[in-house]
Design goal:
Helix content: 25-40%
CATH class of the largest domain: Alpha Beta
Strand order of the largest sheet: 1-2-3-5-4
CATH topology of the largest domain: Phosphorylase Kinase, domain 1
CATH superfamily of the largest domain: Phosphorylase Kinase, domain 1
Distance between the termini: 44 Å
Largest sheet: 5 strands, antiparallel
CATH architecture of the largest domain: 2-Layer Sandwich
Length: 246
């Protein structure tokens, strides 16, 4: 068994007994796991696939929910290694925690509901016709106010001590005319211990610069622009409470 501080009970049981499947779970297997975990009372369909997880639409009694289920052997255009079975719960648990901090901090993110093993559920963003589209797939009618909301969302994340490490039009949904940030699998919790504070702040600055640069490039198609560097500096000054980077 690997030397890891976190293992779900059922994952530990499967490791000890050898009851591990060495294939990606099929739709029916994932749907059954969602129902068994109580994350939904009905699984309607798969509504999306990312680099390392699939997203399902379900009903929790009368409420529509989105369930993100990590794949055993994720693939990625970045060439990331597969997720080992014993790590799945840890990965999902971390994302659920970060999403919860963002939600409590008032950031525009889906409301987290529950986490079980390699799956986490959240409020569904969309309509009866389907999930909310990604920013990259829409044509905004009022891009100026929308950009202001996106930048305010970045500020709110930083006030919650978080920096999104893959902020782009791919990870922003447009729902009810407003932006919603998704995918916190690799987000940074800057105000927590772990790696050294200097290292976290350095990674945070790089992520902010890249994320705002991606947004700036997108909104230029509407003839909009904003000063990237001063915004990064202001956010970093807020995150760097002890002046380590100055």
């Amino acid at each position: 068994m690997p030397n890891t501080p976190y293992l779900d009970k059922s994952v530990r049981w499967r490791l000890n007994t050898g009851n591990l499947a060495f294939h990606e779970l099929r739709y029916r297997e994932v749907a059954d796991a969602i129902l068994d975990a109580g994350l939904a009372t009905e699984v309607i369909s798969k509504i999306g696939s990312g680099k390392e997880a699939d997203v399902y639409l379900g009903l929790l009694h009368s409420r529509r929910v989105a369930i993100k289920a990590y794949r055993y052997y994720r693939t990625s255009h970045r060439g990331l290694r597969p997720v080992k079975a014993e790590e799945l719960g840890q990965v999902a648990s971390r994302e659920f925690e970060l999403l919860s901090y963002a939600f409590v901090g008032g950031a525009p993110v889906p409301e987290p509901i529950e986490r079980d093993e390699y799956m986490l559920s959240m409020a569904f963003l969309g309509t009866a016709d389907g999930p909310a589209p990604r920013l990259k797939d829409v044509r905004l009618e009022e891009p100026g106010p929308f950009l202001d909301e996106v930048l305010e969302g970045v500020e709110r994340l930083s006030k919650a001590g978080l920096v999104h490490t893959d902020l782009s039009p791919f990870n922003i949904l447009v729902h009810d005319g407003h932006p919603w940030v998704i995918d916190f699998a690799d987000a940074l919790r800057v105000d927590r211990l772990g790696s050294s504070p200097w290292e976290r702040l350095t990674l945070a600055r790089t992520a902010l610069t890249n994320g705002l640069g991606s947004l700036r490039k997108y909104f230029r198609r509407y003839g909009l622009d904003f000063e990237e560097a001063p915004r990064v500096d202001r956010i970093m000054e807020r995150l760097d409470r002890f002046g380590l980077m100055r």
